[in-house]
Design brief:
The complex is a heterodimer of chains A (115) and B (112). Chain A is an all-beta fold and 115 residues long. Chain A is built from no helices and eleven strands. In chain A, strands 2, 4, 5, 6, 9, 10 and 11 form a seven-stranded mixed β-sheet that branches. Chain A starts with a strand and ends with a strand. In chain B, the strands form three sheets. In chain B, strands 2, 5, 6, 10, 11 and 12 form a six-stranded mixed β-sheet that branches. In chain B, strands 3-9-8-7 form a four-stranded antiparallel β-sheet, with no helix packed on it. Chain B has a two-stranded antiparallel sheet with strand order 1-4. Chain B has strands at 3-5, 10-14, 19-21, 24-26, 32-38, 44-50, 56-58, 64-68, 73-78, 87-94, 101-102, 106-111. Chain B has no helices and twelve strands. In chain B, 0% of the residues lie in helices and 52% in strands. By secondary structure, chain B is an all-beta fold. Classes of the chains: A mainly beta (115), B mainly beta (112). The interface between A and B is medium-sized, with 26 and 23 residues.
C-alpha cells in the first residue's frame, strides 16, 4: 500500500510569484485535504476535495485554490505569494464513504519559503 | 464550531517517567478525536483515534488516551517515556461531515 506523497519537498519563491504543490493520495482514498502549518503552530485547514469537487474550505483567501484529479491526486495553487505564506504545506488523504468521517493520513509536507 | 486546546506548549519528562499530554475539546456534536505525532521536518503520523467505541484507546508506541465526555478531555499518556518519544504532539477533533481542527501542539522533551 503506497502512502501519501508530496512534491517538491522544498521550494523557495519570491513575493508575487505563483506556486503549485502536488500530492498523491494513499491507494484507495477518495478525499484530499490541504493544511498550512506555520512554524511552531498546529496545522490550519485550507480546503478539502472529495471526488474532484471542493468539499469545505477554511479561512483562506481565494488566491489559494486547488484541484483534484480522477486518480484522486491533488494540487494546491497559491497566487500572488506573500511573506506570510511561508510554511509547511501538508496534504492528507482519507476514505470518506457515505458522508462519514475517516482517519486522515498525512504526507511529509512541502516546505515553502517566500522571500 | 469545534476547537481544541492543549495545555502546555512544552512538556519535559525524564526517561522512564510517565508522559501526560493534555487535550480538551469543544464540540456541539459527538466528536471523533485523534492524536498525531510530528518529528522534525516530517509530516504527521497517527498515534491513535477515538470514534465512539471504547473510551480507552490504545495506539502505537505504547501510547493510550481516554475519552472523558464529562470533562471534554482526551489526554494522551504513556507509562514510561523513551528518548525516541521526543517530538511535537497534536490533538485534533472532527465529527460527522466536519473538517479536522487541530490544537496548537505540545512539544515533548525527554531528558536522559
Amino acid at each position: 500500500e503506497t502512502g501519501v506523497t508530496q512534491s517538491p519537498t522544498h521550494l523557495i519563491k519570491t513575493r508575487g510569484q505563483q506556486v503549485t504543490l502536488r500530492c498523491s493520495s494513499q491507494s484507495g482514498h477518495n478525499t484530499v485535504s490541504w493544511y498550512q502549518q506555520a512554524l511552531g503552530q498546529g496545522p490550519q485547514f485550507i480546503f478539502q476535495y472529495y471526488r474532484e469537487e471542493e468539499n469545505g474550505r477554511g479561512n483562506f483567501p481565494p488566491r489559494f485554490s486547488g484541484l483534484q484529479f480522477p486518480n484522486y491526486s491533488s494540487e494546491l495553487n497559491v497566487n500572488a505569494l506573500e511573506l506570510d505564506d511561508s510554511a509547511l504545506y501538508l496534504c492528507a488523504s482519507s476514505l470518506v464513504a457515505g458522508g462519514d468521517t475517516d482517519t486522515q493520513y498525512f504526507g511529509p509536507g512541502t516546505r515553502l519559503t517566500v522571500l | 464550531a469545534q476547537s481544541v486546546t492543549q495545555l502546555g506548549s512544552h512538556v519535559s519528562v525524564s526517561e522512564g517517567a510517565l508522559v501526560l499530554l493534555r487535550c480538551n475539546y469543544s464540540s456541539s456534536v459527538p466528536p471523533y478525536l485523534f492524536w498525531y505525532v510530528q518529528y522534525p521536518n516530517q509530516g504527521l503520523q497517527l498515534l491513535l483515534k477515538y470514534t465512539s467505541a471504547a473510551t480507552l484507546v490504545k495506539g502505537i508506541n505504547g501510547f493510550e488516551a481516554e475519552f472523558k465526555k464529562s470533562e471534554t478531555s482526551f489526554h494522551l499518556t504513556k507509562p514510561s517515556a523513551h528518548m525516541s518519544d521526543a517530538a511535537e504532539y497534536f490533538c485534533a477533533v472532527t465529527s460527522y461531515g466536519q473538517n479536522f481542527v487541530f490544537g496548537p501542539g505540545t512539544r515533548l522533551s525527554v531528558l536522559p
